[in-house]
Amino acid sequence: MSATAPAWDPAQYLRHAGHRARPFTDLLARVPDLPGEPPRVADLGCGPGNVTTLLAGRWPTARITGYDNSAQMLERARQHASPTPGGGRLDFAHADVRTWTPDEPYGLIISNATLQWVPGHVELFAGWIAALAPGGTLAFQVPGNFDAPSHRLMRELAHSPRWRSRLADTLRHDDAVLTPGAYLAHLTAAGCTADVWETTYVHLLTGEDPVLDWVKGTGLRPVLTALDDDPEARDAFVGEYRAALRAAYPAGPQGTPFPFRRVFAVARTSG
Ligand SMILES: C[S@@+](CC[C@H](N)C(=O)[O-])C[C@H]1O[C@@H](n2cnc3c(N)ncnc32)[C@H](O)[C@@H]1O
């Protein structure tokens, strides 16, 4: 199944920046001290760079590079590029995660909410782990919500008779990410000490149609991209999908509860 490479919209993505940053903070809390003085850090699929800046807060002397293959995201991320107060450096560069090759030993290779867009990403782990300095860490977080109503309803609509011919091959299925146990097996087989877990956040979203607003920044991007040249069709799809989401995610007294499962992994090499 091939997913359409989506066009990203940093402003739409950042509308839920607080909720989206929370798993990154939770991932970071489990990353141990890094080797290297200063440590070298790569953030793969850095997006608009706001969470990359949190790495500079944790490792003020580190040389940190955020990599992404979206020109729109990189343009936004580069607003954060600067020397860091601890004498380190934060910068951003274009790279495709599928072909990125580390050219020096890294203390940390981290990736947040990106590997679900990279089919076969576990095959890349061995190369990344080999590029870690002794005692270095590979850490990532991926959504585990491909069976949630938000994504299931999107897929069902895309496969319905009205949309099938244009959208049937557009979306990822629930095999976009592995189970926590499968990640653990891959990482330990690569010789790492691994810590893998899952968390279901219940984000309380506010505003009208907040789940639609959320997925417009992420999961719905392949559909929006595929229908970009036909605004009438795009609006019709979004209208049908909005109605389905309203039924699946009713608003409560304080907002709309949006359960969101995520899978985390922190793998450390011996050092
Ligand atoms: C959901 S955003 C996550 C951004 C950021 N890591 C965060 O946590 O806010 C996914 C990002 O992955 C990037 N991406 C997807 N596939 C990629 C690839 N093959 N190579 C590089 N970046 C990729 C997208 O451009 C996008 O910026």
From TrEMBL:
Q: Where in the cell is it found?
A: Cytoplasm
Which is one Pfam family of this protein? Methyltransf_25
Locate the Methyltransferase domain: which residues?
A: 41-136
Catalysed reaction equations from the record: trans-aconitate + S-adenosyl-L-methionine = (E)-3-(methoxycarbonyl)pent-2-enedioate + S-adenosyl-L-homocysteine
An example GO BP is: methylation
Q: Which UniProt keywords apply?
A: Cytoplasm, Methyltransferase, S-adenosyl-L-methionine, Transferase
Q: What EC number(s) does its UniProt record assign?
A: 2.1.1.144
Q: Which family does it belong to?
A: Belongs to the methyltransferase superfamily. Tam family.
This chain belongs to which protein, by name?
Answer: Trans-aconitate 2-methyltransferase
Origin species, per record, is Streptomyces viridiviolaceus
The top of its lineage is:
Bacteria, Bacillati, Actinomycetota, Actinomycetes, Kitasatosporales
